[in-house]
Amino acid sequence: MKKIVFLIIALMSYNCYSQCLPPVNCNASNINYYNADVNWDIVSGSHHYKIRYKEISSATWLYKNNIDSIQNNKNLANLQPLSTYIWQIRTYCDSINSNFSSWSQLDTFITNTNLCPSPTNLNTTNITYYNALASWALISGADRYKVHYRIYGTSAWSNLGLLDSMTNSVTLPLLQQNTTYEWEVMAYFDSTIQMASLWSTPDTFTTTSFVAAPFNPQIDNMLSSNVCNTNVDLILKLTQANNEPDIATSTITTDGGSFDIAALSTGDTIGSASLITATQNIYAVLKVGMIIGQNYAIINSYDTSGGFIGFFAIENIANGVRVSSTSPNDGNNYTSGLISEVLFNNVFITPNYTSDLHIFSEIESELNDFINNTDTFSIECPNNISENVEKKILINKIDLQGRMLLENSTGIIIYIYSDGSIEKKLLLKKM
Predict the structure, then answer these.
(1) 94: which DSSP letter?
(2) Which of 133, 201, 218, 408 is the most buried (most CB within 10 A)?
C-alpha cells in the first residue's frame, strides 16, 4: 500500500513538473532595417522567458535572457539590414532554471521596410582645405539625421552628432588638404532611434590646397564718447582674412582711464559680443562672472541659448586698463576669415583730464606671429571743448519800475541781454 501511494505522489510530481509549456502565437512586428519587435502569448505559471535569434545563414545564436513573465514582446536591436532572421522562445517555470519548456516553433522575418526611406540629393559645397558643407533633401516624417564621412577608399568612418528633423546640412570638419572624401547620411523615424533608414548613396568631394596668408589682423578699437571723466562704451573690433594664422592670445591696454569695477556685481550684463565667420554667426552676451577686488574681474561670454563659450579678464592697472583673452583651440592653426567685435557697455571711465588716450593692442597667433596696433583718441573736458557760443548782446536797460533809461542814467539799473540773462548794477554820478 505504501509503495502505491509513493508511486502516485511521484507521478503527480512528474506531471506537475512537465507542464512548463512554450509560448504560442509567436510573430514579429514593427520590422525595419536594424530592429524588430517579437511577440508571443503569456504562459500561465511562467517565471521568465528566454529568446534566441540569428540570421538564417548563421551558425551562432544570439540570446535575450531573463525576460519578465508579464512581458509578451521584446525588441531585437542591432540587426543586419535586408537579412532573414529566425527566432524562438522558451518558458522557465521556476527561478533556478530547472523547469523549462521546449523551444517554441520557429518564426521568420526579414529586415526590410518601406517606412524608412534613405535621404537623397546629397551635395557638397563650400569646400576648403580643411572642411566642407554637406547637404541633403529633408524627408517627411524623419525625426533626426546622422552623418558619417571618411577618406575615400579607407574603412574607418568619422561620425557626427545627431541632427534635428529640420536640419539638412552640416559642416564636415578636420579634413586634410588635397584629399578625396566620401560621406553618407541616414534618417531616424522615431525619437528612440530604433527605426532607421539605410545609409544613403555616398557623395564624394576633394579638398583644396592650402595657401597661407600673412598674419595681419585689422584692429579698430573705439570709444562712444571723448568727454573726460565719463562712463562710455569701449568697442574692440578685429577682422582677419581667409587663411591667416589663428589668434592665440590678445591683450588690450590703455594709458589712461579705468574700468568701473567697483560698481559691478556678479551676474550683471555689461555688454555683448559677435563672431562672424565663413560658416557661422555667433552672438553672445557678456556677464560678470567673478570680481576680485576693485581692480580685477572675469567677464563670461554666453551664446543666445545660454551656453558658456569663453571669458575675458578686465583689470585696472597703473595709468590705465587691460583686457586679455585666450582663444579656444579649434583643431587647426588657420582661420577661414572672421569679424569679431566686443562691446563693454558703459563700464570704461575716460581720463579726468584733457589728453590723448591711447589704446594698445598686442595680438599673438597660434604660430607665434605678433602684431601691435595703437588707436589714439583726444579726450577733452567740457571747459576745453571748442564751441561756437553766441556772445550775449545788451538789448535793454530799465529801472526798478521797468522804465527804459537813457545812456547816462544813474542809480540801480537792470541790464537785459539777448540770451535772456539779467544783471543789476548800481551806477553813481561822477563828481
Answers:
(1) S
(2) 133
Type of residue found at 101: S
The CATH number linked to 227 is: 2.60.40
CA–CA gap between residue 249 and residue 365 (Å, rounded): 7
- Amino acid identity for residue 197 in this structure: S
Strands 231-240 and 247-254: unpaired
Instruction: Give how many domains the chain has, as a whole number.
Output: 4
Over its C-alpha atoms, the chain yields an Rg (Å, rounded) of: 41
One-letter amino acid at 324 equals S
Tens of pLDDT along 162-211?
999 999 999 999 999 999 999 999 999 999 888 899 999 999 999 999 89
Dump pLDDT digits (tens) for 25-55. Answer: 999 999 999 999 999 999 999 999 999 999 9
pTM listed for this prediction:
0.52
**Residue at 116 is within a domain:** no
C-alpha cell at 217: 589682423
Give the whole-angstrom CA distance, residue 290 versus residue 266.
6
Return the closest-CA partner of residue 227 out of 382, 346, 386. 382
Q: Taking every pair of C-alpha atoms in the chain, what is the biggest distance, in angstroms?
A: 168
Secondary structure letter of residue 244 according to DSSP: P
Containing structural domain, residue 282: 218-384
Task: Scan for cell 546629397, then name that residue.
Answer: 122
Helices (H), 86-225: none
Do 227 and 329 fall into the same domain?
A: yes
List Cα–Cα distances, 369 to 25, 142, 246, 248, 363, in angstroms. Answer: 74, 48, 10, 10, 8
